[in-house]
Amino acid sequence: xxxxxxxxxxxxxxxxxxxxLRERKQLLGIDSDVEAALARMKPxxxxxxxxxxxxxxxxxxxxxxxxxxxxxxxxxxxxxRAMRRYVLELFCGDYGEDYAAKRLRVGRIHGRIGISSKYxxxxxxxxxxxxxxxxxxxxxxxxxxxxxxxxxxxxxxxFDTYVHGLFxxxxxxxxxxxxxxxxxxxxxxxxxxxxxxxxxxxxxxxLNNRRQF
Length: 213
Hints:
Layout: H1 10-14, H2 18-28, H3 32-45, H4 49-60, H5 64-70, H6 73-89, H7 97-112, H8 117-138, H9 145-200
């Protein structure tokens, strides 16, 4: 089935099923204890989430290329709101299909607007550092190592959408080339038939010439 089939959800196209999600989490070491620990850290993050977002974007905007991509104040406000939602979702404690679908959509958007993977990975790394520092200030005993696991889980899903998007572009390009090839073959057949006809008829009278006889 084509990767460009609009009747399928992105998760279906990528094979992201409940079984797949369980396997991903198992490979990363994310179990119910880790999920519960992340949920317990949410009260440490939520009151200061705006402080976290400001610290994150202050460092992001220090990079000229990222500053140029953001471009204007309205875009920055929109990004801060989206990041705020994401940070709180990191500590939701439920990382099933709905959570994965959100991460896949984010990956698809980043891929479509052409955000390089190096900037995405850099942003995830920075977010992890900012959140880790914030959590340690709130509670030095907080299991901040669990944060890395869920961010790696998100990174996997995002990269899957990047790869899927690249394959989709290749598939679409192949479909265009195949259609063009068929059109070209048909044109060659028509031209060949035309040349054969001209070689056998008189161009003035249209009657069969000596070669035809």
